[in-house]
Amino acid sequence: MLLKNTEPLVPQPKKKTASKAKRPAKKTSKTAARAPRKAKAPALAAPVKPPLRQVVVDALEDMKALEIKVLDVRGLTDIADTMVIASGTSDRHVRSVAQRVVEKTKQAGYRPHGVEGQQDSDWVLIDLNELIVHVMLPRVREFYGLEKLWDMTATKRAAARA
Length: 162
Fold this sequence. Notes:
The protein is an alpha+beta fold. Helix content is 30%, strand content 17%.
């Protein structure tokens, strides 16, 4: 048995298409003045990074590190331009100071190459490319005497080069 569709056929409305009539080409002359282009909005200046040395010293002072010493080691070694040596009161304090230095330098846009010694926390070294940070217990600092090793005044440098 065949069923017939009893609904009347409703004609579907035709889709309107825009006529693509050709428009006459605009004629411009070489001497015609062009409308001035809008000037590009000035690019926002990248935020200025604070000096790495200042970020490190501020982080050390913020965590109450003891005897902060900044040494200029340019000319003495190629591994860094500056060394910062500081002490902590306990192994937990040394670890916390080092973690704060890493956090603050990352926030300022500097990435440390590496951090060594966080397990024992007698001496934590943070490599920040041109700056190296040593955070030590006082007894370890006294034993190794890094200040005596790396602290070269201008007269000592001149004598060492001669």
